[in-house]
Amino acid sequence: MAAKLLRVAEGNAVREAGPVAPEKVLAGNPQQWTEHFFTNKKENFFCGIWSSDAGKWSLTYTEDEFCYIIEGEAEITDSEGVSERVVAGDAFCIPAGFSGTWETIGSVKKFYSIYEE
């Protein structure tokens, strides 16, 4: 069977919803939604759309992630206290080994692409 182009489009995703893990939450009661579009055969590459409402939580990355903010804004702070605000139209990568916090200001929606060794 020939490989086929897989469209990343609304309605072509596996949807999940739920709270951010309570042990990670630092402020608020953030809920998150994922529209997962693709996982490769090795199960180490993923892409989709993720969104959340207001809140702040700790995070530690074992994977590399490319993000493109579709709407809203967030503040990402590394373990040394350096913060960056990301807004609609921003594209960035979070490398494996990153630890710090993610704070959603209001609500945010991003396209993600994740690679894990």
TrEMBL record:
UniProt cross-references to InterPro entries, sorted A to Z: RmlC-like_jellyroll, RmlC_Cupin_sf, UGlyAH_Cupin_dom
Domain (S)-ureidoglycine aminohydrolase cupin residues, every copy: 41-112
Highest taxon of the lineage: Bacteria
Name the UniProt record assigns to this protein: Cupin domain-containing protein
Species assigned in the record: Microbulbifer pacificus
